[in-house]
Write a structure and sequence with these properties.
There is one protein chain. By secondary structure, the chain is an alpha/beta fold. The protein folds into 2 domains: 63-292, TIM Barrel (Alpha-Beta Barrel); 303-402, Beta Barrel (Lyase, Ornithine Decarboxylase, Chain A, domain 1), CATH 2.40.37.20. It has 12 helices and 17 strands. The chain has helices at residues 4-9, 23-26, 33-41, 62-78, 93-101, 112-120, 135-147, 158-171, 194-205, 219-222, 227-250, 379-383; strands spanning 57-61, 82-83, 107-109, 126-128, 152-155, 175-180, 209-216, 257-260, 276-277, 308-319, 322-325, 338-339, 346-349, 355-358, 371-375, 388-393, 396-402. Strands 1, 10, 11, 12, 13, 14, 15, 16 and 17 form a 9-stranded mixed β-sheet that branches. It has an 8-stranded parallel β-sheet with strand order 2-9-8-7-6-5-4-3. Strand 13 and strand 14 form a beta hairpin.
């Protein structure tokens, strides 16, 4: 007699399984991928577990994520310091709205596209941290200013300011400007002291720009290992902006904002002259940030939990001491990634679509088809490769949050 298993999976009947009535209710693993997408679209997550997801994909642990947001929000209130968290880490409206709900005054964006995405979804108080040096970016910054009076962006160059003033005059708008000053990173920021003051005065005196304050991002301090060493580095990097603020006040300039900071320095920069924090990685954390050490433990940074992981499938295991996964170069696999719950496994790369797990001891339990979660090394780079977050409570998927930019390049 033909067995049920042989009947379903014989070549002639291989396509019958997805079409069986009530297949999804009888066994959630059997409903087809097309139905999975339909259910996600209508927010019906009943019976959807991690084992049903396409891999590699991003998983957010909702409980740890909420805990991270609460920890940062509580600190900001107690410090006190304002919070304008950076969205370049998550590129997600859903995440940003949850940050706003916990008291953030707005968000910080690295690209004009991120700024547009946030405003188009009801989020105000966006600070764009790159000056509009190109015609495309300038026109979009002016257009966004016209639609959103709360929008701010930075300048660090007199010529760019002239272009902004001319474009703003033509559009009959006033742009809210934050002057970007040097804070240890050579990628942007006018010199502190007299150069910064003169640019700020020019902004203040221009008819179509409003001077709001300064931005001083000490990126070099954020990953300095050891809390005391990190505080020393941050203090050195922010000394210049403190001098600039003092000169500005003496000159009668209204300095409303001194923006900067990072997840690594969030609990020290309120003492170093900042009025608001731009930190972003705290929402998810990554394997590199965990190594910088915390205030009470230099070996691990435990203020925030690792709430995001990459779910991957073991595709092959034909060689001793290693297994192939689908977490490869295109998925942003890095040698510094870590396997959740299995520290004896080492992450490696094999190609565009192929990842590698290696072990000397303790890896023989790995089987083909196993699902493993991996903590990525750099959140900014990894989230740029994916189109959504699968939000989980335990093994159950309870929501899906889109990641921006998937109609084209994320930087478009």
């Amino acid at each position: 007699m033909t067995s049920r298993r042989r009947f379903f999976f014989s070549p002639a009947n291989a396509l019958l399984v997805p079409l069986l009535p009530n297949a999804a209710s009888a066994n959630p693993k059997l409903f087809p991928y097309s139905e999975l997408e339909q259910r996600i679209a209508r927010k019906d997550f009943r019976g959807i577990g991690k084992d049903m997801l396409p891999t590699p994909c991003m998983i957010v642990d909702l409980d740890l994520f909420d805990k991270n947001l609460t920890t940062m929000a509580d600190f900001a209130k107690s410090a006190p310091i304002l919070l304008r968290p950076h969205v370049k880490v998550h590129k997600s409206v859903d995440v940003a709205k949850r940050q706003i709900a916990r008291g953030a005054i707005g968000v910080t964006a690295a690209t004009i596209a991120e700024a547009e995405l946030m405003f188009n979804n009801g989020i105000q108080g966006v600070l764009w941290t790159k000056q509009p040096a190109s015609i495309n970016n300038l026109q979009r910054a002016i257009a966004l200013t016209k639609r959103d009076p709360s929008f701010l962006f930075v300048v660090d160059d007199f010529d760019v300011l002239v272009n902004v003033e001319e474009a703003a005059a033509a559009a009959k708008v006033k742009c809210r400007i934050v002057v970007s000053v040097f804070a240890g990173l050579t990628r942007q920021g006018i010199a502190n002291g007299k150069p910064a003051l003169e640019l700020a005065q020019k902004v203040h005196l221009s008819r179509h720009t409003v001077f709001e304050g300064y931005m001083a991002y000490s990126g070099g301090a954020s990953h300095t290992k050891g809390w005391e060493a990190r505080r020393k580095k941050s203090a050195e990097d922010l000394a210049g902006v403190q001098e600039t603020v003092q000169l500005s006040k003496q000159a009668g300039l209204p300095v409303k904002i001194v923006s900067g900071g990072s997840t690594g320095t969030y609990n020290m920069d309120h003492e170093l002259g900042l009025t608001e924090l731009e930190c972003g990685s705290y929402v998810f954390m990554d394997s590199l940030y965990r190594k910088v050490g915390g205030r009470t433990d230099d070996s691990v940074y435990s203020d925030f939990d690792t709430a995001l992981s990459i779910l991957t499938t073991v595709d092959s295991k034909q060689h001793t001491g290693q297994a192939t996964t689908d977490y490869g170069n295109k998925a942003m696999a890095q040698l510094t990634d870590q396997v959740k719950g299995r520290p004896w496994l080492q992450v490696d790369k094999q190609g565009a679509e192929y990842g590698l797990l290696k072990w000397k001891d303790g890896g023989n339990e790995i089987k083909v088809g196993d699902r493993l979660e991996i903590y990525c090394s750099n959140l900014d780079m990894s989230t740029n490769c994916y189109d959504r977050y699968y939000v989980a409570k335990g093994n159950n998927i309870v929501d899906v949050w889109p990641i921006m930019g998937r109609a084209g390049a994320a930087q478009r």
